[in-house]
């Protein structure tokens, strides 16, 4: 069966100048001037805007239309709704790691990229744990890995100095050695700088802590273990205690108020998976250039938070061409360009070893060699945390609102009990 499908794809490529496509949706989408239109659905910042223009220039028969959603949750809700409806999906759909398990459960609705994609693009191009997560039990590759999220810590140098804390990236490392030292420094900061919080959001701190553990919301057999996992409760207690001591700015991540918080300096530290650099630069704006710094120290070591994949749903009417575009976007050269544009850190091995990456300087963050910094952080990640069914919903729709309710005055124990009950509902 595999060889027959590969023949079909090759025939499709040969006749790509024709008016129809062998993609799963029938006739290809065409623009008024006869180009093949490829739609790409992403969320947050992937750093693809200039890459799309580059690809179109090299492929004059292709027109790329981007559907960009500001946050991950509505993007994935739309994805699963249209999967159920059987129509309406983009040719290339981005999937964040927290939602990947739901896609893998519906893998029959996505193309095997080993069959329809360029034959030279094989899983060994990626970090093993990155490719393994998108590979089915029968060895079908459902997604090309885009970025990963090795963790570092970002902070405002000027606000640290105002609080009497060290501000040089090497000197601040002792503050970020453990979560205990991090929260202790937060106590000193809020005492010295009234009106400015230590961190932006309880949920953002909790998510970073949670992603450091071997076992998260689900064990590897996909059993919900929220209530029985002591690490989750320990993280909850540490974060809600810091909230009670006034360390949180009580902002909802990716809200307008959170965006404005970067610009106005309403908090001093930010957990920084590599992709967060682009978010900070965009939201803090040019007037804050040089005020933000990033250090390779991270409480309790390191970890991975985030990272996505590009998939080609079987709904695509241009499956072979969509796979070719997805393969190009995730190639080492383009992964480096996306990192330079928005801080999305490469997941392909050749990119991680590239001089272009290791020598990359981020002028916004005080000319730090961000590529080398995050490449070192990757080495601290031995495996990605297993993400079970409803992992993304539990993170974004259960624990984030529960922690926000604590920031708004709800008792931490009551909010914990609510989160447990809502997690059980989400996992059904």
Automatic annotation (TrEMBL):
SUPFAM superfamilies: Periplasmic binding protein-like II (SSF53850). It holds the Pfam family SBP_bac_8. The keyword Calcium does not apply. The gene is cebE. This is Sugar ABC transporter substrate-binding protein. Residues 1-24 form the signal peptide. InterPro entries: Bact_solute-bd_prot1, SBP. The keyword Signal applies. Keywords: Signal.
